[in-house]
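Quick one, probably user error.
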């Protein structure tokens, strides 16, 4: 075992089981609580063509229990001990976790190892979940902003699987068979495709022994194939128009951006904070800080929009920066688009004042600190950083962001936030 330095990564111990399970442990003894995360390197980017939504659906099925843990027993057993259980699927990973009193850590290890090897995929439950997920999909389609964002993303990407929604396309959800979903589970829920993250009050040597005991019988498998699609550079502006019943108009602009581990990501995080206000990492953070941002001042304070913001998601492969606005009643969406374009031009052409730059840096520092506080938030950060590159990545990005200069902000704005790299979408209520 080797200890690694850093901040989030400070005092993290990395180990590996014989079958390939990667283990990240961060002992903390401030309170008798521990969180246990099983993180699988599979998300919607790994869904096969014609089977979109498989990763998300598999996550749903694991909540249905195993041969030993019947439906509903896992949350019931955790609740009795003062703990809780959850999970989520993103474009890049699927995660399950328990946070509970540290004396019951073995229960979490038992649950996660059994879910890795022995999920049931009961035929009746599988069909019932098909109905649930299609209803979830249809509910999302009734939200104009979701529908527009989905269409903008699908238009911005030509070939990369990030163009596909995490929940999947409805035609695939109707057609996927139980055997196909079982194949997806068996392919990706392998020990050598999993990182086990533990943060809290535990002894690392004993915990590693217990992890060997619970996970050691899972057989190593051939590594799953990675997507080979590389999105070509966009060579001109793309436009999306969606007309459906609704009560408001929306505008979304999406720009191709580099992957999280790219050298320019830190500068883009600062540009994102200047435009829309800094955000936390995943599990927490304070209220959105956008009310002092450029987009808020340019769109909301001028009465063109009722809300506006910017979102840059850290991703394994090159992703998107997305700017969104809810158009004020009586205003044309084209007016919002023109004001948005002007702000992007200003960022690229006019040097950022040092006070505004420092505000963005400090927002990032504070929001990341808020969201990575507590054992659950830290485990989320470690799982995300490990999936993106290594557990050091978020520490490195934070340090770099605090050193970003005004010239770097203007440079990335010119390079990425321009018309030829933009997909612009309007939702107009019909």
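Nope, works fine. Designed sequence:
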């Amino acid at each position: 075992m080797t200890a690694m330095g850093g901040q989030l990564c400070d005092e993290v111990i990395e180990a590996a089981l014989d079958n390939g399970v990667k283990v990240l442990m961060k002992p903390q003894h401030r309170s008798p609580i521990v969180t246990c995360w099983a993180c699988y390197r599979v998300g919607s980017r790994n869904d096969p063509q014609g089977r979109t939504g498989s990763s998300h659906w598999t996550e749903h099925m694991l909540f249905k229990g195993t041969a030993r843990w019947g439906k509903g027993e896992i949350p019931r057993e955790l609740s009795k001990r003062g703990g809780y259980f959850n999970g989520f699927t993103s474009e890049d990973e699927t995660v399950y976790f328990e946070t509970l009193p540290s004396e019951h850590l073995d229960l979490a290890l038992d649950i996660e190892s059994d879910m890795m090897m022995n999920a049931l995929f009961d035929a009746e439950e599988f069909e019932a979940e098909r109905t649930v997920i299609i209803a979830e999909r249809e509910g999302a389609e009734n939200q104009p902003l979701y529908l527009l964002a989905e269409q903008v993303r699908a238009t911005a990407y030509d070939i990369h699987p990030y163009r596909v929604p995490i929940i999947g396309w409805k035609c695939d959800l109707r057609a996927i068979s139980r055997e196909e979903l079982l194949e997806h589970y068996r392919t990706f829920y392998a020990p050598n495709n999993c990182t086990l993250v533990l943060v809290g009050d535990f002894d690392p040597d004993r915990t590693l022994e217990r992890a060997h005991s619970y996970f050691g019988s899972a057989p190593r498998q051939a590594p799953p194939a990675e997507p080979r699609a590389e999105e070509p550079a966009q060579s001109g502006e793309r436009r999306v128009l969606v007309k459906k019943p609704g009560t408001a108009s929306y505008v979304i602009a999406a720009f191709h951006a580099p992957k999280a581990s790219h050298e320019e990501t830190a500068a883009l995080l600062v540009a994102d904070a200047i435009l829309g206000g800094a955000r936390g990492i995943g599990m927490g953070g304070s209220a959105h800080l956008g009310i002092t941002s450029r987009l808020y001042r340019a769109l909301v304070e001028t009465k063109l929009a009722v809300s506006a913001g910017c979102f840059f998601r850290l991703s394994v492969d090159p992703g998107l920066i997305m700017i969104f606005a809810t158009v004020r009643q009586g205003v044309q969406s084209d007016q919002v688009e023109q004001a948005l374009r002007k702000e992007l031009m200003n960022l690229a052409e006019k040097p950022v004042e040092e006070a505004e730059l420092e505000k963005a840096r400090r927002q990032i520092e504070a929001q990341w600190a808020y969201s990575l506080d507590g054992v659950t938030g830290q485990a989320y950060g470690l799982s995300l950083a490990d999936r993106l590159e290594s557990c050091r990545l978020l520490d490195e990005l934070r340090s770099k962001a605090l050193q970003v200069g005004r010239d770097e902000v203007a440079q990335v704005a010119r390079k990425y936030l321009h018309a030829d790299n933009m997909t612009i979408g309007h939702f107009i209520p019909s």
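The chain has two domains: 2-215, 238-429.
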